[in-house]
Specification:
The structure holds two protein chains of two kinds.
Chain A: E1 15-26, E2 29-40, E3 44-48, H1 55-62, E4 70-77, E5 80-83, H2 89-96, E6 98-100, H3 113-119, H4 122-128, H5 133-137, H6 142-159, H7 175-187, E7 193-197, H8 205-221, E8 225-229, H9 233-239, E9 242-247, E10 250-255, H10 257-262, H11 264-271, H12 275-289
Parallel strand pairs in A: 3-8, 3-9, 6-7, 7-8
Antiparallel strand pairs in A: 1-2, 1-4, 4-5, 9-10
Helix pairs in contact in A: 3-7
Chain B: H1 13-35, E1 38-43, E2 46-51, H2 53-72, H3 88-111, H4 120-145, H5 154-171, H6 175-197, H7 202-222, H8 224-227, E3 233-234, H9 253-256, H10 264-290, H11 292-302, H12 304-309, H13 314-340, E4 342-343, H14 350-363, H15 368-384, H16 389-406
Antiparallel strand pairs in B: 1-2, 3-4
Helix pairs in contact in B: 1-2, 4-10, 4-13, 4-14, 4-15, 5-6, 5-7, 5-13, 6-13, 10-11, 10-13, 11-13, 14-15
The chains are: A alpha/beta, B mainly alpha.
Amino acid sequence: MTLRHDDAPALPEDVLLRVERLTMRFGGLTAVNDVSFDVRRGEITALIGPNGAGKTTVFNCITGFYKPTVGRLTLQSGNGRFLLERLRDHQISRTAGVARTFQNIRLFGGMTVLENLLVAQHAPLMKASGFTLLGVLGIGGFGAAEKAAIDKAKAWLERIDLIDRADDPAADLPYGDQRRLEIARAMCTDPALLCLDEPAAGLNPRESLELNALLRSIRDRDGTALLLIEHDMSVVMEISDHVIVLDYGKTISDGAPRAVREDPRVIAAYLGVEDEEVDEVEREIEEAAS
Amino acid sequence: MAAPASPAAAPSPLIAAVKDAGIAALIALGLALPMLGLVTTQTQAGMGLVPHWDRVAIAVVAVFAGRLLLNLTLWRPGRRKSALAVPPKVEATLARTAKYLGPLAILFAIVMPLLPFTERYAIDLGILVLTYVMLGWGLNIVVGLAGLLDLGYVAFYAVGAYSYALLAQNFGLSFWICLPLAGILAAFWGVLLGFPVLRLRGDYLAIVTLAFGEIIRIVLLNWYWFTGGPNGISGIPRPTFFGIDFDRGPDGFAATFGLSYSPLHRILFLYYLILALALITNLVTIRLRRLPIGRAWEALREDEIACRSLGINTVNTKLTAFALGAMFAGFAGSFFATRQGFISPESFVFMESALILAIVVLGGMGSQFGVAVAAVVMIGGFELFREFSDYRMITFGLVMVLIMVWRPRGLVSSRSPTVFLKEKKAISGALVQEGHG
C-alpha cells in the first residue's frame, strides 16, 4: 500500500505545502474557517494572529493530530505528492516529512539528550535492525546504522551547542536549551517541512537571536522550509519571508512581512480599530440617536 | 511550622501534642468499640454479645501513647525533614554497585544448587523465586519500559500453562516443541488484549486489563470439556532431558549417564531450566532496550504525543510491548505446568497478578536488577513467614507501605541510559516518567 497520492493535482514548482479551504469545527465552535495559504520551498513562513485565532489548530491539522472537517492539504516534496488529511500522524512525519515542535516543550525528559535524538531516527534505525528480529540476534547492519545515527545526532548537538550535555537527561537542561533540543530532535527526522509552535516563547533576547540564526541556517543549509507560529514580532519580522495573519479562524492578511505590518486589518485585529474609525462609529451612533 | 512570634501567641508544643494524641485516641476508641470491644458468641438463645472493654482500653492507650511519643520526637514541629529523601550521590553509588552485584547474583544462582549444604527445599524455593523473577522481568517490559499498567498479566501465564498442558496431552508434543508454541499463543493473546486497550490510559487501562485477567480465568473455569474446569488438568507430562525421562528405568536419565538414580536430578534440571529461561528473558530485554523498539517503548512512556510527531507508530509499539511481555509469561506458564504436573484455574487468580506487579513496582520500574531483588525478597519472604501465616499478609502490607514511604520509586529507581557519548550517567528516578497508561 502506498501512502503517496500522485494523482492529486500538481502544485506549482515552488510550492511545498498548499492548504486549501481548511475548516475545523469542534461541535458548534468553528476554530478554523475556510483558510487557504501556501508554504513555499526554501522560505520561512510565519503564522501569526491574536490568541485564539486558530493558529495551533491549523498546525494540528497539518501534522495530523486533528482530522480537518473540510479542506485539502497537499504536500509536494522530493518523495512525491501527499494529501496530508488522509494520512495518520506518524505517517505524516515518517513518509510525508513534516516534523513539528510543541508550544509546551515535549521532550523525553527521563532520557538523555542523545537518546532523544536517536528516538527521532526511529524509522531508519528500525529498518536497519530488521524490525527488531535481526537486531535481537545481533545480525545485520544495525551497528553501522546506529553509529551513523549517533554521528548525525552529534552533528546536530554541535550545531545547537549542546554537545557537552549529550549524556545528561533532557529534563535537566535549561529552558532555552530544551527549545533548541526539541528543534534538533524534529530535524533528525529529515523533514521537508518543519512546523514550530512558538519557538521563541520564554527565551531571553540573546537566546532569541541565537534561535533566529538557527532557523535561518535550517532554511539555508538543510533546505527545509519552516512554518512557524510566533507571538514575538521581532522574530517574525526579522526572519520570515512570508507572513499569514489569522483572526477568529480566518485569514485576514497574507504577504511579505512589511506589507502585512502595514495592513490596516492586521493593525485592527491586534490593536483594535484605528482612531478615525472610532470617530466614524461615534458619528454614526450620534446620527442614529438624533 | 516554627512559631516566630512570642511564645504566648502559639500554644505550647506539649499541649498541642497531647491534644493531637487525644484526638487520635478518640478515633481509635470509635474504631475499637465495635471491632475489638464486642465479640459475638453462640449462646443457647442464639447469638450473644460478649464485651471485651479491656481490649478497647489497651488499644486506646496504645494509640494515645504512641501518637504522643511520635508527636514529641519524630513529628516534633520544626524538626527538619531530611531522612526520607535519598541523596543523589547514594543513588548513584547504588546504581554502580548494582552493576557488579548483577553478575555476582547470576553466578550465585548458577552454583547455589551444587553447594554441599544446599537442601532440596532450597532448590525448590529457588525454582519458585526464579519463576517470579522471570514473570517480573516479562511484566517489566510492559509496565517498566512501555509504561502500560497491566493488572491482568497472570492471564498470559495461564495461557502458557494451559497451552502446554493441552498440547502435550492431546497431541503428545514434547516440552521443547510446546515451549515456543505456548509463547506464541500467549503473545497472540497479548496482541488480542492490546487492540481494545490501545486508546485507554491510566486507570481505565488498569481496569480493562484486570477484567481481561478475570475473563481468562473464568473461561478456564467454565469451559469444562476443554480445560477440565475447576478440576484442572492433571498428569501433565514431566519435562525430559531432550527426550530422556527422569525415571528409574533403563532408558532414564540416571541410567543413560551412568549415574545412580536420584529424584534430585529432575529438580536440578528444572532449576537450571527456569534459570536459563529467566536469563534469556533478561538478555532479550537488555538487548531490546538498546534497539530502536526499546527506545520507542521508553519514549512512549515519557511522552506519547511527542512519539507520534516523530513518526513512531504508537499502535505497533504498544502491541509489541504487550506481545513480548505476554510471550515471556507464556514461557513461564508452560514451565509452571511441567513442573507442577497439575494446573487449575486456582493458580491464576488476581492475587498472582498483583504479586508480580508488586515485584516490578517495588524493584523499581525498568530496572532488571531491582526486579530480581524484589522477587527474591517477596517470594523468599513469603516462604519465611509460612509458619506465621496469620501475620503474612499484614507483614507484606507493612513492608509495601514502608518501601513506598522511603523509596517511592522502588529499590533501584534510577534509569541507566541505553547509549552514551562520553560517560554513562544514571538518570535520577525523579526525572523519569511512570507512564500514563
